[in-house]
Amino acid sequence: MPRNAKALCFALATVLSWSTVSTAFKLALKSLSPMQMTAVAMGTAALALVPFAALEARSLAARGRIFTPRRTGLAVLAGAVIFLYYLVLFHGYDHLPAQVAQPVNYTWSIMLAILLSLVRRTPLRPRQILWMCVAWAGTAVIAMGGRSIGPVEPLGVGLIVLSTVLFAVYWVVSDVNDMPSLPAMLACFTVACLLAGGCCLALGEGLPVPERCPWAVYLGFFELSIPFLCWREALRLTDRVALMATLPLSTPFLALVWIHLVLGEPILATTVGGLALIVAGTFLQVREGKRS
Q: How many C-beta atoms surround the C-beta of residue 198 within 10 A?
């Protein structure tokens, strides 16, 4: 099979995997608290990456030290941020219909652009701000329309918006760290698992029994470890980076299919319309940013 065809298969597997996780969030929340979900998902993801890290260990070690103090510190910081991100995200999903929470969370790339402009001290172009406003208008449309199928709590919307900020911070921290991607991700998930597990014990929630964990384990595989490995392989194989970059834009639309089929939520016209605004605004904002 040609390299680009293999890359496309890995990319499509990633997109399909990501499209299911918003449904899995809601299913896992039926039996676990957000803190317990975070602990189980992160622990599963870390364990799943161990064999791959072991296979790469010799070649990585030949390039020099992997865990320098600076790299390790940044990896720990990234783990702490991703712990907070998922904890806030799961709490947000607990207060909203899935078809409201998922598209609002998709605006994290807008937050990333704003954060990078502040860190790099490069002002956003007027057209970038315009497309950001288009994306945010989409979230408002979805939130207002979502009231017809269930309560759309301001707390839930606020938590999902906060999660987009935390995810943007995570990517900034990860971008600064020059540790190889696989050990960096393994260290990040391990730190997040330890923090979540420690908080479960400290807050009296306790660690969940295995019978309540299947959907959280699913998230560890299909939200975290498998998509990371597949996407990394897709980028390694392809010479069509632009195509790879556009494929994830289909993820939130595919997610609506699973939300309807599995959770039984009727997909509203306002959700589809608002999501179209979010995706279009996000795509055009990114394209405009590349021109600057």
A: 12
Boundaries of domain holding 109: 3-123+151-238
pLDDT tens track for 202-234: 999 998 999 999 999 999 999 999 999 999 999
Q: Is 205 exposed, middle or buried (0-12, 13-18, 19+ CB in 10 A)?
A: middle
How far apart are the C-alpha atoms of 112 and 40, rounded to whole Å?
A: 27
3 state DSSP class of 288: helix
Whole-model pTM: value is 0.94
In a domain, 49, yes or no: yes
Asked if the structure places residue 35 within a domain, the reply is yes
Residues ≥6 apart with Cβ < 8 Å to 9: 1
In this structure, are residues 218 and 24 in contact, taking their beta carbons and an 8 Å threshold?
Answer: yes
DSSP 2-53: -HHHHHHHHHHHHHHHHHTHHHHHHHHTTTS-HHHHHHHHHHHHHHHHHHHH
Structure tokens at 27: 């299913």
- Residue 214 CB contacts under 8 Å (≥ 6 apart), including other chains: none
Inside any domain, residue 140: no
Counted domains in the chain:
1
> Within a domain: residue 266?
no
Torsion of CA 290, 178, 122, 252, to 10 degrees: 50
Q: The tokens of 208 are what?
A: 């969940």
